[in-house]
Amino acid sequence: MKIKKVFLFYPPGPQYQRGEDRSQGNVDNSTATSMRAPNDMAYVSSQLEKENIQNIFTDYSSEKKTLKTLITDFEEYSPDAVITSTTTSTIKDDLKIINFMKEVKKDCKFIMKGSIFFKAPLFLLDSLDLKNVDYLIGGEIEFAAANIINKINKNEENFLEIPGIFVRSNQVWNESKFDNWNKEIDDLPLPNRKKINNKLYFRPDTGEPQATIATSRGCPSACVYCLTPTISGKLTRFRSPKSIIDELEDCYFNHGIKNFFFKSDTFTINHSWVKDVCDHIVASKLNNKIQWVANSRVRPLQEDTPKIMKDAGCWLIAFGFETGSDETIKKIKKGATVDENLRAARIVKEAGIKVYGFFLVGLPWEKQTHLNETEKHIFEINSDFIELHIAVPYYGTELYEIAKKEGLLKAPVVGQNYFEEALTGTKFLSPEELSKWRKKVLLKYHSRPSYIFDKFKDSFTDHRKFFNYAKHAIKLYKNISR
After folding, report:
1. What is the pLDDT of residue 422?
2. DSSP 300
């Protein structure tokens, strides 16, 4: 059977960051996070089109479309193959949708991508209802999906040559090589943004369309809670500045997008590369025409880096500050200190860039004193925006093994919506205590007269910001009071 048409989709339901590996967060229940563009599917679409294979993509969750609409679209398009992306929280519901689609078209091939499939043990795969899925991608979908389709079309059987996948044969899952990352990321075609409803993915303060630009992959750090070193490797693979500029110009001139999220596990890790990228932006046709945000680690961050980024259009930098406890920061192997958190926030603010602070509580050893230290640190840093997460022991992380050893895994991690409620608790704090504390701190932080005044001042001359700040405030208070 030849694959001539491929149906790409994100399933209906709550908005999750399906294109992410390390976060997979529930956007609907976040504080100020917006849904990021589905670059994983856009990369696959570009490669399929190079092979003259028809394809369509719909993000049913962001479009607020129903399962009934999905099935109708599926029946009308009648594809030969389906590719979708799942998360640790949504996988059970996603598989129910796959099973329903299989009943509609039994000869269709089904490919599912998810970080949970990276080197997954057979007992984990056997615990999931995967009977109608033919291929699992645990590695980089951008390099794997089109290769799977091409091998099907060529009647080849050597699928295990493709890194980072599982192939089902006679009801048995066969594993290819993992830990084998493609270094030639510049060779990827640009994501096919013609297939994306770009208005769905927006800058959270102004509501303007915002594209995601994958600038590098991999992280050499060893944070115990993070999937990145497992999924993307410890070697940081950088895109060339020219390749990044090409994609920025495609977005700006062909799609009218002038706001960007530079997706990188740690954008500032290589100072000379950051300077090179920023110099290319300043020297390009896009100078003073675009704005962008990026993630950064607290260490390394040279004093002049924020200023260089600001001059190239950066308006916000996000940091995983995580905790105000030096004990916890060591145990999670963050590779920084609480004082370095304060320094990073200071030099970024001095450069005229806003700070987005991410914090993490609910680690196995934490007591109320640890929460108190983190609460103090949150107010001390005084970020422009914050997210306060409760730790999730993702399968494949060191945190999972720690939680398992401490007897804290009372429920399976797979299929749980962890964002609002703690999944495990700690040795000293119950899930209910953690969730109650989280809501209390979020309400206290965002209800400060000084914080409200700053947001009012920031949006006084821009009605878009005023509207979006108000919208996020309503969502925040609704989630807290739930």
Report:
1. 59
2. S
